[in-house]
Amino acid sequence: MHTLQKEQGVMSVAAAMFLTGMLTFFGFVLVVIISSTTDSKLSMLADSILYSASDSHSSAIDAQQLLEANIPSDNMSLKQPRASVQKEEIQASVTVKGTMDLDGLMLTDQLKTGDLDISHNAKSQLHQITLEIA
User: Fold this and answer.
1) Residue 100's closest CA among 29, 35, 26, 33?
2) How far apart are CA 28 and CA 93, in angstroms?
3) Which of 12, 30, 1, 2 is nearest to 103 (CA)?
4) What is the pLDDT of residue 134?
5) What dihedral do alpha carbons 35, 36, 42, 46 form, nearest 10°?
6) Residues 70, 85: Cα–Cα separation, whole Å
7) pLDDT tens for each residue of 37-89
């Protein structure tokens, strides 16, 4: 006669599904935090490049140096950061772009997000008013 035995495993199916869901949620939160931090850093970088470009004769070179100094390649998941500066007599504009490599982050395999493009534009305009007293 065959007797039925209750199998006892280390983890139930519900616990495994819960753990998988929590890891996926943690991966999503990780992507949101890193992309928000990178977005904020690019925004501040666009402002600093614009501030430097408004008072520089070599604004493109300054923009590249600020980009290289503020975005080290080893601690961010930002690929191909680039900055472009358009400067005229009374106005200047800066565009800072980059692509986040989300495939290189831990725990993002389940999300299948691909790369995330981030771009920031900053513009300034010079207003001068003169008053002559005769």
Assistant:
1) 35
2) 34
3) 30
4) 42
5) 150
6) 17
7) 888 888 888 888 888 877 778 888 888 888 888 776 555 667 778 888 888 77
